[in-house]
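Sample A.
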Amino acid sequence: MKDKKICLITFSNNADHQNTVYSMFNALYPKREVYTIGIVNPKTNIAPYTNNNYYVNCPRRPGIEKGTFNIKVLLEIKNFIDKNKIDIIYFESQHIWNMFVMLMCPTKCKVVAVHDVIPHDGNKFMTLSNFVTCHLANHVILRNYMFKDTLAEKYRLNSKNITCFELWRNYPPKTELTYSQTFLYFGRIRKYKGFDLFSKIIEKTPNINYRVVGEADEESKYLVDYIKDFGNVSLVDREVTDTEMIDEFKNADWLVLPYSNATQSGVITDACRYARPVISFDVGAIHEQIEDGKTGFLIKEADVDAFTSKVEEVNNYSKSQLEEFSNAAYEFGYKKYAAEFFSERFYEVLVNV
């Protein structure tokens, strides 16, 4: 395999996309000639600071706003790529600047990641961005396996130019259980994430302790207002830091994922990293991320009563039963989500495009 220089890029302000980029950098560097470009003041606590890491001010994704056409910074990015003689550029998350950088670097090999083939809530701008960047790219990385044919058909791509990868992250040492009997709902609160279903589950299980951590959009605020008065709910209705996120997983026994619509979930990746089993509705490609009855449970889509029964059942598990699920989730996750496990395969895919 011929060594080539690769640059991993994310302009996202989300800690999960940042973790994906910097965990892969840390897994490859210094064995491989790898570089990164990201936003200043990254939220993830694993962001590296070497001469190979470049941080810039950029507009928030995904739309157009003040700063979108900051030619000075875009030229600085191009200069960083040219100066370091980068061969391959990989874009982990969608952003309007991806298109600009791709057009400014016509001779470079370009690879883009697609997370949601059909963007949530029918986001037409995201669909258009996905389509354009996929066609500007030499290769596409899809972050699940189930929707490969859909991606090829919807965006009119050759399936040979699509490679599927899991949602890798850095993988810390196993986090021991606290046996708190707490069920954690973590992540941005959106309608497609089934928060209306979750409110019914909470209402039906007054004896269960729930911890809800995430920022709601305008469409979902009324649901947050509804559950905050329940005595069995502890609520943090804001975006939390990476350190706070780790603490939330450490202090929970189970993760609950009542999604009504999904492709895959980065929250499940985090649950495995912190050895926490998951109860989820079986939607999208979620079944690729949970071994039913071993690392968690898959519940028939929108079956609130079945979800409720499972929560009550596992709340009565013994410590040894819970420990078995915790160990299985951690071990299962390492081979699916550890950046170090995927690093050489990922590198090989890029250099052989």
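Sample B.
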Amino acid sequence: MTKSMTSEDGGAEQAVVRLENVRKEYGEAAALDGMSLEIRAGEAVAVMGPSGCGKSTMLNMVAGLDRPTSGKILVHGEDLGKLGEKGLALFRRHRIGMIFQFFNLIDDLTALDNVALAAQLTGTPARQARRRALELFDELGIADRRHAYPAVLSGGERQRVAAARALMNRPALLLADEPTGALDSRSGEQVMDLLLDLNQIGQTLLLVTHDERLATRCASRVIRMADGRIADERTLDAAGVQA
């Protein structure tokens, strides 16, 4: 892989994500209960915890897909609470890359067109978007599958296409929601290698996962949530051992 896949923004000391005392209520229940978190440029942070602990809610907040009841969320210096719906949509297209558990590819578009579409939605000319997509396909080792439709791709190949789509606009932050959850063990290993490689060349990652192997292999910091709060946090060395 080459440096063309990394974000063009920010130095190693910049906080890419900052949550300040974030609370999210659904009726009388609090999915997030005063959560504070900072993720610096180049970090890979894995968030773990039981179902219902608030980790997916937190990810949706960072992606600008949901709004907090109270507190502040800043991503790459942008206060999401000050953005309207149009502003949030533009923020997601330009600043955030997302990889989902079930890929979310468009079935009637080829792999290449799925990826190029992400750039075209930001106003990038089609020819330029396809050129960028082809570069990513080559770097991710799936250039020979560029004309295939999602239905004929393996799980690992589909997740690599999804990763290429997420990286099209050189996002400041890559979010991954259970990226190995729908994959067999071999495809899961391929996706872990991909995420590890991306982080090693400087991409900031925020992963939500139940997979302990993914967390310890790909993350430099593991956060465990319980009842909408951070219950535990540990820093890992390059070998996945607690530092």
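B remarks: Residues 185-200 form the longest helix (16 residues). The radius of gyration is 17 Å.
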